[in-house]
């Protein structure tokens, strides 16, 4: 009965929960851009106050980058650590947003009501589902469901530079029986999912320079080296005609998918036509001979995320630029090591560099792929709880996204992680007009109440 | 004797001539950027007033773009038309300028005094050499040396969209016996030159788009098409391993250099080590088996002048962009037709476009290469005059730059063109810290006085 009371409480107080979420969404906490440093601090302080209002002992803990919000509360039962992140992606191109990304609103769409704002789905809306579940629980029971530690990061969208040192420095304080991570999605718009495989990430930016200044293409064209040509010639060979990455040794530490998992994925009947159709595409563009789910869940990738050089403004400028630049990232799987992959990539680029050119590297970073310990009984408990809330059995799925925290919790804190989230494929995270379905937010809060009820029992 | 008086007058009044040039250089007449439209009009008005002060009947004539300055003055002798342009290139990257590009100053350098400012060499400083020569002549003789028409364009750096219609609409008024064009350089820092070959230009901008929005490289990476990959893959094949442009039929209308010209160019003993060394390069990067002078004067090129796509800001964003863009230009020679070249290029790109991608084209434009009529006696007269002023025989040279006006004067007005200019290879035109040597300006004025003295005799 008490669970029903908590669920009713959640339903009755949804408007207030939305007001609170909107307050957090109004803070432009873009972690990758130094211009928003103050806003990241404001978002951290906002969360500290909200956690304190729930009876948590909470503080914004300084790091060399943006603060970590750490809170402790509750007692008894298993000790659970909940992780989410309060920072968001940049909003450019701003012109493609149909409203201010930081002025949240409920919008009616053909698919139902959505919360429109940068961070609504990734990850402010998701982390608030857990806090709201705790709030309702406390209102009904007068206490939190069990011993809880909350860890909210402010650098997830910018490579988490402070995360590992912070976990190491505070290992004892942060170690729990199990961590809950809310930064993933449903399998499809109605079927809940628990993510058990995550791809890793390796990223780096580089510059190819030739002449010591921009040159007039009339005076020098045909004689002087054009670094844009060098860049396109090299990056144009990043994949072969079969979609295979050409960096030497790239696939050395990549394992084939276990038959059991492959079979379960086939049973999911993933419809790539709909998945791609939702974003205006139709044809899988990855490795030959791989299924669409393999391409996004269990195969490594190399992607140029940004490229620039020469004159890119209005009109035309017949210039031979002095420099050309690119930002490249790799999604990693199995045992691929980020440092090893970046090293091989650097060597591969350098080996193709013609005379009179120079290379400069910046912003290297990365994290390994991780696979969850689904033997942990919490996974079956959560699967049952999610099934009750959504009316369909929860799927154990992979995720193409990189959530390094799961791997760090295991390697640094010796703690298993369970990833449960309520985002949808069409949430447009990292894109203009990001949204979070009102249904995701509402049933997400209810889902956590059910999961806590089963795990904390 | 009277020529000596004019030359002395030029020497005595150099400070006033510099003041006038600085006034013109302070106007940021960047024609390619709509934000500077008003400044282009101001530069035109400034020139109209200066020409009126020389007794010219002058006016800024409206066009769909920036105004044309047209002036008529003098009487008797041959009818000469002088052409220059008052618009300038954009100044980005502004951070690389060591002073405000539009706050001109005389600077002492290891190579002597220079006039530092955007447009000092291309082309405001050059066009003022002719106006100052006229001013000195008039001061000494009380009249201009012969019948003169002045045509100063404001769109040379942005493809001259209004030029052809204007020449056609005013053909009778603008037709003269010979046109003098001052937008070229010395052969080297001390040897004067008359340019007799000019490369043409074909330019176009295009966009490759895939998904209808930016995508999260974790969720979609490996499955969704990345337009930056498509762009680099195609542009990476623009040249083969021997530096030959791969667009089908590109070399069909390209003639080999006549032996006589080839011999004369060899006698120039062009030192490409110095030419490239001045900009931090050392190795010719053009077609195999071509001399450096051929590469820049008589061979066609394909250059990517700008490329952009995805996230190019501070930090990192693991995005699969919806679009990728490039600005590409071709330097043309012999009988190459700009429209034909652009058509072949569009076809070549389209043929390599994978499924799920779309192409959009913008800003096409171009002009044919041109070869001067050196049989015209004015060429020998100018060669002698320049030899007297600089103490070294003037060279007949080619130029890699595109000055379509020479071709239009011939095709539309049936008038030969003679290109004489005083720029130097290290003037950094189209680059940060553009300069014009004080020597170029001073001896340029004197050179025109000598040329007019011989031609107008």
From TrEMBL, chains A, B:
Keyword line: Hydrolase, Metal-binding, Protease
Species this chain originates from: Albidovulum sediminis
Domain of life: Bacteria
Record InterPro entries: Cyt/Met_Dipeptidase (IPR051458), Peptidase_M20 (IPR002933), Peptidase_M20_dimer (IPR011650)
Signal peptide interval: none
Lineage: Bacteria, Pseudomonadati, Pseudomonadota, Alphaproteobacteria, Rhodobacterales
Protein name: M20/M25/M40 family metallo-hydrolase
Short name of any one Pfam family annotated for the protein: M20_dimer
Domain Peptidase M20 dimerisation positions: 198-356
